[in-house]
Fold this protein.
Amino acid sequence: MFGIQVALIVAENMKPQVDQITGKRILIVEDERVVREGLRVLLSADAHTVVEANNGAEAMALFHQHRFDLVITDYEIPFIKGNELAAKIKRVAPHQPILMITAYSHRPGPDNPVDALVIKPFVTAALRGIIAKLLAQPGEPPTVSERAKVNLLSPSFETEIISV
């Protein structure tokens, strides 16, 4: 059900916004193929180069081999959970921007060292906004905490974005 919703949201919002940052290398770590593909389509439409991993171990290997402007990870992924992946990445690259997209409320903090967290289901415009913030501040983690309400699906649909 969620994967279908992601695909529909992506299809409705394919054009990048004027203030959108484009042309970055992004690693997506997501075990659900439909969600991963939806994110790839959205980010590719914004002219980003996307590399995909379907588990934490594969992501770590890719991270050691390549440079990424942003890592986007789910929390519940096989082999290495998203928070463990974030901690391993931050040990070798402390300023690496990491965005977690999850259905669970794993707040950023010492046990989850991500720069921002978006709760599923999310609205594409809100996701693009937090990605733009993370990409616009290379080497500096964002400092703003916010709860973004974006009205793309229905008046009651909101996307929660948490930054540290």
